[in-house]
Amino acid sequence: VNVLLSADEIRQGVDRLAQQINRDYAGKHLVLIGVLTGSLILLADLIRQLNMPLRVELVQARSYRGAATTAGQLTLQLEGLPELSGEEILLIDDIYDTGQTLAALVEELQRRASRAVRSAVLLRKLGRQEASIEPDYVAFEIPDKFVVGYGMDHADRYRNLPYIAVLDESDLKEPSA
Ligand code: IMP
Ligand code: MG
């Protein structure tokens, strides 16, 4: 693994995101919706820096299957979300890659809220976009490499790394049992 963003750099990026969100939503009631599992650590770090009245909700999205680094069929789990009609919603995800995940979630949440839904991501991978939706807040733009750490996994490993690293080719093989 080689480090792309150190824990310190990530902290600065999250600080910038928090400042922008605090400025744009000052005094407004916000519903933050985190996309499990990858946004777990970003969400925890971000919400502790936000100062408007807010509520936190979670959804799950899966598109990666096993050790594959290309997206498979996207499945969304939105059970357990409260009534969102009229709410100001900010969706939080780890990375915008093709954009299919955010596009599908934003569309469904806009339907439920009957109003525009915005999104914030830590990373945006350049050169991969397929969806027409743009994330509203982006902390870092990164090259088209498969990254892990700070919540992001490969085959459910590496989420606990405090930094973000690019996986080597040799790490991309199915881990042997
Ligand atoms: P998208 O739908 O193609 O934008 O994919 C977004 C989802 O795929 C993110 O929420 C991540 O969970 C996952 N993903 C995309 N690229 C990476 C990566 O480089 N490392 C780990 N997960 C990734
Ligand atoms: Mg994800």
Describe this structure in words.
It is a single chain. Strands 4-3-2-5-6-7 form a six-stranded mixed sheet, sandwiched between helices. It has a three-stranded antiparallel sheet with strand order 1-9-8. Helix 1 packs across helix 2 (40-47). The protein has 177 residues and is an alpha/beta fold. The protein contains three helices and nine strands. The chain has helices spanning 7-24, 40-47, 100-113, and strands at 2-5, 30-36, 54-62, 75-77, 89-96, 118-125, 137-142, 147-148, 164-166. Bound molecules: inosinic acid and magnesium ion.
Short characterization:
The chain is of the alpha/beta class and 177 residues long. It has helices at 7-24, 40-47, 100-113; strands at 2-5, 30-36, 54-62, 75-77, 89-96, 118-125, 137-142, 147-148, 164-166.
Distance between the termini: 20 Å
Content-based structural category: alpha/beta
The percent range for strand residues is 25-35%
Basic shape: globular
Helix percent reads: 10-25%
Mean pLDDT, to the nearest integer, reads 93
Walk across the major sheet and give the strand order.
4-3-2-5-6-7
The largest sheet, given as strand count, sense and whether it forms a barrel, is:
6 strands, mixed
State the low-pLDDT regions, or none: none
* Secondary structure tally: strands: 9
Listing every helix as H and every strand as E from the N terminus to the C terminus, the arrangement reads: EHEHEEEHEEEE
| Rg (CA only) | 16 Å
Helix count, per DSSP?
3
What binds here, in terms of ligands, is: inosinic acid, magnesium ion
